[in-house]
Design goal:
104 residues; alpha+beta; 3-stranded antiparallel β-sheet
Length: 104
């Protein structure tokens, strides 16, 4: 169930895998997938490449490019979206992501 402030969005059937959800964006079966949780790079690296090659934009929850093969292999949040809506999705998700990060 979506939070109250996101009820203007529509959910699609979601597999229990962030990588499979990203593949749905790549396959044009979904417009975006977003999360504001900490995750490991190995959970999304291959899917990020697939989605980007298909034309999607993939960033962290703040709209910054993902960076892989770092000493600390975790990142906060993920946003994988069709290019036409990524900026609007970042503007919508970014403030919540910054708030969650500030709260620790």
């Amino acid at each position: 169930q979506l939070p109250r402030h996101d009820r203007d969005l529509v959910t699609v059937e979601k597999p229990n895998s962030i990588a499979l959800r990203m593949a749905m964006v790549a396959a044009d079966e979904a417009d975006l997938v977003a999360t504001v949780r900490w995750g490991n790079e190995w959970d999304v690296a291959a899917a990020a490449l697939i989605a980007q090659e298909a034309g999607a934009v993939v960033t962290d929850a703040l709209g910054e490019p993902l960076s892989f093969n770092r000493p600390e292999p975790t990142a906060f949040g993920l946003l994988c979206a069709a290019p036409g809506i990524h900026e609007a999705a970042t503007e919508r998700l970014g403030p919540r992501a910054r708030d969650l990060l500030a709260r620790g």
